[in-house]
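agent> fetching stored inputs for the adenosine-5'-diphosphate docking request
agent> found them:
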Amino acid sequence: AETKSQYIKGKWLGKGTYANVYEAHLKSNPSQLFAIKKMIVGAEAKDGLSMDSIREVKYLQELSHPNIIKLHAVFSSKNQNLNLVLEHLPRGSLEQLISEGDIQYGSADIKAWMGMLARGLHHCHSNFILHRDIKPGNVLVAADGELKLADFGLARSFADPWTRMTYLVITRWYRPPELLFQARHYGSTADVWSVGVIFAELVIRKAWMPGGSDLEQLHLIANVVGLPTEDVWPGVSKLDGYIKLTKDPAAPQTPVQHRQQMQREFALVGPEGVDLLMQMMALDPRKRATAKKVLMHEWWNMEPKPRRKEDLPRKV
Ligand code: ADP
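agent> prediction call returned; pasting tokens
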């Protein structure tokens, strides 16, 4: 068991919804930096917030992979505050790489970053863990350029498919249609959808489907990949939150037109890249690519090869 006294707290790194994050190092070794995530366990903690912290610990401890943030230790401080000692990831998040205009990147960089995301995701899913809140802000960059899935606060095991799960997870823009329709039994391909949205965002460098409400989100999705009907997604109309969407005359009307629209918008990654993206954005979660299937796609073998991580563009 680790105790607080082993770590010297350094400068404040940032604030999240439920935590303050500080730089830290071991007394015995000042050169290796860590990030200490001090969970805010206040009066509001009763409504499941401390549960979130406990979940984060439980799942992170089980995972060990280059593309998943490493949890080095856990200790409690005064008022039973939970402290997570995490790998120090000093190069910001994917959100910053995407939005900072002075950072230039191309298809080789996107392929390298997508490979890291897909490998991290596959590792989570092979261990029966869903992340459930994948978005660019939760993908952090290590000193060596490796991307790491972080913020496992909402993660949970999907080993028991019969427990009903909450559909109020995943930030709306990255949320798959089954969750927007309030499905209670969903699987790992919900995370694949979120990574697909990130893939698109990496290419266009702005939010792809920035819905202002759940209904608007569903319309944006329908305009991009098509209407969710019983034909393409058997059973969809039985979901609790199902809403029959109507055709937008300005949107593509056939699967061929949808693919053509995607090939124009995502020309940077070529037809194979677009094919992968479309497999990740299948409306029916059972037809959507799994993380394993994503890793086996032909796009990875096309030119250009993924950029070596030491050559990837970085925040200045
Ligand atoms: P929350 O889960 O409560 O939203 P975050 O995990 O988003 O908290 O952390 C808040 C901020 O702290 C981040 O935006 C980032 O600036 C910083 N941060 C978080 N984790 C690390 C880390 N491992 N290394 C360096 N900085 C971090």
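agent> quick read of the result: The chain has a mean pLDDT of 90.
agent> awaiting further instructions
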